[in-house]
């Protein structure tokens, strides 16, 4: 996802099998990239693979590698909606179907069972988020403005640097289905 066609995308992943531009751990972003070198950080279903104590330092690194007018967009399973689904339907019920197959609450809580069974143990979840927890962590990490929304078993957060054009970024994200117009942390 690129909001500005002049931007250059740099794909960073721990798994060489997905052919990223840079292979490495998200725990070592500031070792891989210079401060203030990115307009945006986009991470989807990544932070839950960290241990709880690793999340804040990682978000601080997001803040450090972003330009003063940059932003971070983060998507993670929403444990609050997962817990509600479990209370309503049980832990083994299918919540939805993805390209990887049926997804159950166990997959959202602990990581995609089939991927882990196939030996991709880095896919295990070690922490989790609600909108409130993720929003608070981003504010603690130094982001100037944080907006969080929850839908479809996901919590989505938009974290803005101090000089970011809040309204322009929100308008652009609407084109990709991210509506932060009413959500503020």
From TrEMBL:
SUPFAM superfamilies: S-adenosyl-L-methionine-dependent methyltransferases
Keyword ATP-binding: no
InterPro entries named in the record: SAM-dependent_MTases_sf
A molecular-function term among this protein's GO annotations: methyltransferase activity
GO biological process terms on file: methylation
Transferase is among the record's keywords: yes
Listed Gene3D superfamilies: Vaccinia Virus protein VP39
Keywords, in A-Z order: Methyltransferase, Transferase
Highest rank taxon of the organism: Bacteria
Name of this chain's protein: Methyltransferase domain-containing protein
Species of provenance: Bradyrhizobium barranii subsp. barranii
């Amino acid at each position: 996802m690129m909001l500005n066609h002049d931007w250059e995308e740099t794909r960073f992943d721990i798994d060489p099998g997905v052919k990223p531009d840079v292979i490495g751990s998200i725990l070592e972003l500031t070792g891989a990239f210079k401060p203030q070198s990115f307009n945006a950080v986009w991470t989807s279903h990544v932070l839950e693979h960290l241990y709880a104590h690793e999340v804040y330092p990682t978000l601080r690194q997001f803040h450090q590698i972003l330009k003063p007018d940059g932003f971070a967009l983060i998507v993670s399973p929403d444990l609050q909606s997962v817990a509600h689904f479990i209370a309503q339907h049980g832990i083994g019920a299918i919540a939805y179907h993805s390209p990887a197959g049926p997804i159950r609450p166990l997959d959202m809580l602990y990581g995609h069972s089939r991927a882990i069974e196939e030996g991709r143990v880095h896919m295990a979840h070690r922490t989790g988020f609600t909108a409130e927890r993720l929003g608070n962590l981003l504010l603690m990490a130094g982001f100037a403005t944080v907006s969080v929304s929850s839908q479809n078993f996901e919590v989505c957060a938009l974290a803005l640097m101090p000089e970011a054009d809040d309204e322009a970024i929100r308008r652009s994200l609407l084109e990709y289905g991210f509506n932060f117009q009413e959500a503020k942390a």
